[in-house]
Amino acid sequence: MFVLVNLKTYPCDPVAVAEAVRDVNESTDARVAVAPQAAHLERVAETGAETWAQHVDPIDYGSNTGHTLAESVAEAGAVGTLINHSEQRLKLADVDGAVEAAERAGLETVVCANNPAQIGAAAALGPDAVAVEPPELIGTGTPVSQADPDIVEDAVEAAQAVDADVSVLCGAGISTGDDVVAAGDLGSEGVLLASGVAKADDPTAALEDLVAPL
Ligand SMILES: O=C(CO)COP(=O)(O)O
């Protein structure tokens, strides 16, 4: 299972969480990675943790003030990027452009979507993976695998119908190892989570719990 920890803009110490991600990754068969804010990418990557960006824009080098260039993210040490997170939604054409930009820069891609229909559309753009995250469950602590298991199974089916090579992750409210196991039982190949680690008093303990059954 792939466990991708999105730090959003939570007021946590990104380097401390990254060190915990690195250490826990070494102690498990699961793949554990962290997605800090763009401004923290370099410091986080220097810890040796697998580092992801939260977003890249559908742009190339040039006059794009305030945008995030995929090549710069890769140069800062990211190996992959989220695209179209529910908190950073893009138009379909821009999702397509961002996937293209990420691939140009050698970044792995996870395109987020709210529901199975959008997952099918996202899978058609040829990312490495898609992630279904019902927005109403994000940050609630109620795991999608428990509150809405059908959405995960339907997302897996929708992605496979379009492109069987695209992996499916799920997210929203995931915070325990049991949640990760439940996500896997529904056909998901990984989880995307944030508050369960970024807002935890002890992020290392939270991460250890997440991977314990894997
Ligand atoms: O948006 C999410 C991960 O990208 C999910 O957030 P929570 O884990 O806080 O529900």
TrEMBL record:
Primary location class: cytoplasm
Keywords, in A-Z order: Cytoplasm, Gluconeogenesis, Glycolysis, Isomerase
GO molecular function annotation: triose-phosphate isomerase activity
UniProt record, GO biological process: gluconeogenesis; glycolytic process
Record EC number: 5.3.1.1
Residues annotated to bind substrate: N6, L7, K8, I138, G173, A194, S195
Family annotation (CDD domains): TIM (cd00311)
Pathway info: Carbohydrate biosynthesis; gluconeogenesis; Carbohydrate degradation; glycolysis; D-glyceraldehyde 3-phosphate from glycerone phosphate: step 1/1
Entry's Gene Ontology cellular component terms: cytoplasm
HAMAP family: TIM_A
Protein name, as recorded: Triosephosphate isomerase
Species annotation: Natronorubrum aibiense
Name of encoding gene: tpiA
